[in-house]
Amino acid sequence: xxxxxxxxxxxxxxxxxxxxxxxxxxxxxxxxxxxxxxxxxxxxxxxxxxxxxxxxxxxxxxxxxxxxxxxxxxxxxxxxxxxxxxxxxxxxxxxxxxxxxxxxxxxxxxxxxxxxxxxxxxxxxxxxxxxxxxxxxxxxxxxxxxxxxxxxxxxxxxxxxxxxxxxxxxxxxxxxxxxxxxxxxxxxxxxxxxxxx
Length: 197
Description:
Layout: E1 2-5, E2 14-15, E3 17-22, H1 25-39, H2 50-54, H3 64-76, E4 86-88, H4 90-93, E5 98-102, E6 110-113, E7 115-118, E8 121-124, E9 127-131, H5 133-146, H6 148-155, E10 173-180
Parallel strand pairs: 4-9
Antiparallel strand pairs: 1-6, 2-5, 3-10, 5-9, 7-8
């Protein structure tokens, strides 16, 4: 079953909070996964370590097998696969780079599914997320590009190789107007993205 999202609908209930995220691609991908966990009922995937994959502030502590699982999950939970649950819409993001909305308040412009089929598993859509292209680039496109060699290794069934460790993480952290489930993002201006190196 599907609903539609109209960006001018005043009854939409939005929520989220500002977060600080490291610029490291692993932290960024964990943040993407955390946002998707707010949108989708990922518990149906029956992966015991989901909570640890969401703790983007603790990205340096993630084990190699967990990084592999994160990369696989984020590949399966790609923006394309979730195109009926997450939407690129700058206007609905307002001052943030992404925003969340209650599914039950969503009507009219975007086709929103109540469930999505991922890897043969039907997963319920719990909330709707809108994002700006810059959010998607920083939190999924660039991190997945960074982990491309790892994804190839995983898909070929190889075991861990030297050079895939999680050492040498940069400590560069920036404050940005992205949101995660919680309170509504603030309307403050002047927070900038750091550059991905």
